[in-house]
Amino acid sequence: AANASAALTSALNEIMPGAGEVLGPLQHTCKPKALTESEAEYTVQVIKHMYKNHVVLEMYVSNTVEGIKLDTIEARLTGLGPCWSMKGASAITKLDYGEQASAYVVLEKRGSEETAGAVVGAFGCALP
């Protein structure tokens, strides 16, 4: 858990310098949830990291097809309601067969917790 926390902190500081002060203490990390079928060319799980006024979505991607390299993997959210704003994101430059890596999206809540609502997103990757 300490290594995962250090990796998250490092990634967030690349997206938002001084992220520790901006986000405050991590309040909760949810269990990973699969976004793709396990038989797909790549698998993606989302892990939600909850802060007082922010949510960090970690897209954990695994390349499961031998001989295929995934390039420029990005998580993009669409349809954010007025209660959320995207503060930054990171991408995965490349992912060879058998490798795993994470891309992150940082969201900030606007208004009170009661009005935050849900966030709808999609994940995609173009294969050569």
Summarize it.
This protein has helices spanning 2-15, 19-23, and strands at residues 28-29, 33-34, 42-50, 54-63, 70-77, 84-89, 91-95, 100-109, 121-123. With 128 residues, it is mainly beta.
SSE topology:
Elements: H1 2-15, H2 19-23, E1 28-29, E2 33-34, E3 42-50, E4 54-63, E5 70-77, E6 84-89, E7 91-95, E8 100-109, E9 121-123
Antiparallel strand pairs: 1-3, 2-3, 3-4, 4-8, 5-7, 5-9, 6-8
What does this molecule look like?
The protein is mainly beta and 128 residues long. It has two helices and nine strands; from the N terminus they run ααβββββββββ. The chain has helices at 2-15, 19-23; strands spanning 28-29, 33-34, 42-50, 54-63, 70-77, 84-89, 91-95, 100-109, 121-123. Strands 1, 2, 3, 4, 6 and 8 form a six-stranded antiparallel sheet that branches. The protein has a three-stranded antiparallel sheet with strand order 7-5-9, with no helix packed on it. β2 (33-34) and β3 (42-50) form a beta hairpin. The longest helix is centred in the N-terminal third of the chain and has 14 residues, at 2-15. The termini are far apart.
The number of helical runs is 2
Order of helices and strands: HHEEEEEEEEE
Binned strand content? 35-45%
- The overall pLDDT, averaged over residues, is 83
Shape: globular
Share in helix: 10-25%
Top keywords for this entry?
globular; 15% helix; 128 residues; mainly beta; three-stranded antiparallel β-sheet
